Amino acid sequence: MSYNVALNFEDGVTRFIDCNGAESVVDAAYRQGINIPMDCREGACATCKCRVESGSYSLGEYIEDALSHEEADTGYALACQLRPTSDCVVLIPTGSGACGTRQESYVTRIRDVRRLSDSTFALELEGDGLGALDFLPGQYANLQVPGEAHRHRAYSFSSITADRGGVSFLIRNVPGGLMSGFLSERAAPGVELVMNGPFGSFYLRPVSRPVLMLAGGTGLAPFLAMLDKIVAAGGSPHPVHLIYGVNTDRDVVETERLEAFTRTIPNFTYSICVVDANSGYPKKGYVTHHIEPAHLNDGDVDIYLCGPPPMVEAVAQHLREAGVNAASFHFEKFAPSIS
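RE: above sequence
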């Protein structure tokens, strides 16, 4: 049996390796050109200590000086002894460069570019190299603007590579923005873009309690990928609620896809709120106005938030004022650049 293991390095780089049941993560990584720091291979030195964030595994043999019982109980392991028994996400506490690896780069072509609204583009890329691409739903990639060799922009994947050869993004239309100008004026099917990724520690963890997703504008993108993952996993045993906030009715996108998720994920619900007081949607105001006590489940909830910095700060303040200490709170801030 072989398993897919995501190695998340502390510099934000993610690399995926194939690990069979008979080899350790260190050995599998080394076989695929990634040198996780280690000194002994015997479970004695703790140099390769890591943390398993999701998945099942065997700890192997080690001495307590290298890994305490308390550490083992909270997900820590020694990569030289760690043997996955399912797909896993492993946090490696060193930079990717120190392990002799780097982030993957892909030459892609535009498959389609559409303006979903005045404020949002949908961009689909394809390429032969993307057939081997993996990413954790919620992560992002850097796209190089054609003609701008040293300038790139970061965007969250909005779809998993279901067809093994294509990825998609939701991109905010920023007046005067570098990428926005390209998408408005020059983008067309067949035009090449360089993509680097995946990156980031914002991704869906195993669903073991109710989930609250909070999206601001194009911050919806990573949640679409997360919901795709939940569908692929056969649904969720716990409630998953998404609050999607925008400024005006014209900014609302991907409602058909959200409706489809309500049919394929029985425990999934969502609401849309609009800042504009003249909106035709019943829920008006900001996302924080529509977080209900039931969504927070007395703190036994995993919260995921993707939006601009003021939204992240407002949600954190809302939780403090409500006296809620969520089981986990994962967030991704984004700020559009026009440079």
